[in-house]
C-alpha cells in the first residue's frame, strides 16, 4: 500500500479523492466512480458516503441522474487539491510495466499530463509490435484509476510510426515539439533528436 493510501485510510478513498478533485467539473454516479477507479461498488459506496459526510464532495444532479462531485466550497479545497496533485505520481517503471501487457513495446513517450504541457494532444505515445488495442486500453484505464485523470493516448506499429515521423505527421510533431519524457526507447529516438 502506498504511503498516501495509509494516510487516507485505504487505496479506494485515495483513488476516489483523486477522481473527484482532479475532475472537479464532473458529476459521477456511484457506478461511474467505481468503474473509473477500478474498485468494487460496495467499497466505493462506503467511501463516497464517508467523503460526503466530511464535506469534500457533495451530491449534485448530473446528466445521468443524481451523482456526486467535488465540493469547491470545502474550507481547505484548494490546499487539498494542490497537495494531492503534488503527491500523485506514477513512476516510469509502473507505466512501462502496465503498458507492456498490451504487446512488445519499442518506444513510450510521455507528454501532456506527465510533463505539464497543457497544449499536447496526447499524454502517452506508445509504439510497438503486435500491440493489442483492447489490452492497451485496459492498461491505460488502470493508469487512469491510479492518477484520477483521463489520459489521452495514441498507439502505432513500429512501421507506421516511422512513416508518420518521416512525413512530419502533426500528432508526432506535437508530441516531440512540446516537453516530453521518454522512459522507453528501443528505437534510438533520443539519440537522433
Give a topology summary.
Elements: H1 3-8, H2 11-22, H3 30-37, H4 41-54, E1 57-62, E2 65-70, H5 77-87, H6 92-99, E3 104-110, E4 124-129, H7 133-147, E5 153-157, H8 158-166, H9 170-177, E6 181-185, H10 189-192
Parallel strand pairs: 4-5
Antiparallel strand pairs: 1-2, 3-4, 3-6
Number of strands: 6
Task: Please estimate the helix content.
Answer: 40-55%
Poorly predicted segments: none
- Separate helix tally: 10
Largest sheet: 4 strands, mixed
The share of residues in extended strands comes to: 15-25%
Coarse shape:
elongated
Radius of gyration: 18 Å
Supply the helix-strand structural class. alpha+beta
Succession of helices and strands: HHHHEEHHEEHEHHEH
Structure notes:
This protein has 193 residues and is α+β, with helices and mostly antiparallel strands. The chain has 2 domains: 3-87, Winged helix-like DNA-binding domain superfamily/Winged helix DNA-binding domain (Arc Repressor Mutant, subunit A), CATH 1.10.10.10; 92-192. The chain contains 10 helices and 6 strands. It has helices at 3-8, 11-22, 30-37, 41-54, 77-87, 92-99, 133-147, 158-166, 170-177, 189-192, and strands at residues 57-62, 65-70, 104-110, 124-129, 153-157, 181-185. The strands form 2 sheets. Strands 5-4-3-6 form a 4-stranded mixed sheet. It has a two-stranded antiparallel sheet with strand order 1-2. Helix 3 packs across helix 4. The mean pLDDT is 87.
What key phrases describe this protein's structure?
single chain; alpha+beta; Arc Repressor Mutant, subunit A; elongated; two-stranded antiparallel sheet; 10 helices; 193 residues; 6 strands; 4-stranded mixed beta sheet
Amino acid at each position: 500500500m502506498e504511503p498516501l493510501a495509509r494516510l487516507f485510510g485505504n487505496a479506494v478513498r485515495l483513488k476516489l479523492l483523486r477522481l473527484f478533485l482532479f475532475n472537479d467539473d464532473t458529476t459521477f454516479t456511484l457506478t461511474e466512480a467505481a468503474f473509473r477507479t477500478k474498485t468494487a461498488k460496495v467499497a466505493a459506496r462506503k467511501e463516497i458516503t464517508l467523503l460526503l459526510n466530511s464535506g469534500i464532495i457533495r451530491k449534485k444532479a448530473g446528466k445521468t441522474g443524481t451523482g456526486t462531485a467535488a465540493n469547491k466550497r470545502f474550507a481547505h479545497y484548494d490546499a487539498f487539491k494542490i497537495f494531492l496533485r503534488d503527491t500523485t505520481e506514477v513512476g516510469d517503471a509502473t507505466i512501462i510495466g502496465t503498458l507492456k501487457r498490451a504487446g512488445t513495446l519499442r518506444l513510450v513517450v510521455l507528454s501532456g499530463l506527465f510533463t505539464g504541457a497543457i497544449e499536447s494532444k496526447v499524454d502517452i505515445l506508445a509504439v510497438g509490435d503486435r500491440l493489442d488495442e483492447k489490452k492497451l486500453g485496459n492498461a491505460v484505464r488502470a493508469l487512469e484509476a491510479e492518477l484520477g485523470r483521463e489520459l489521452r493516448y495514441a498507439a502505432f506499429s513500429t512501421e507506421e510510426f516511422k512513416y508518420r515521423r518521416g512525413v512530419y505527421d502533426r500528432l508526432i510533431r506535437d508530441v516531440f515539439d512540446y516537453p516530453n519524457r521518454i522512459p522507453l526507447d528501443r528505437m534510438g529516438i533520443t539519440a537522433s533528436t
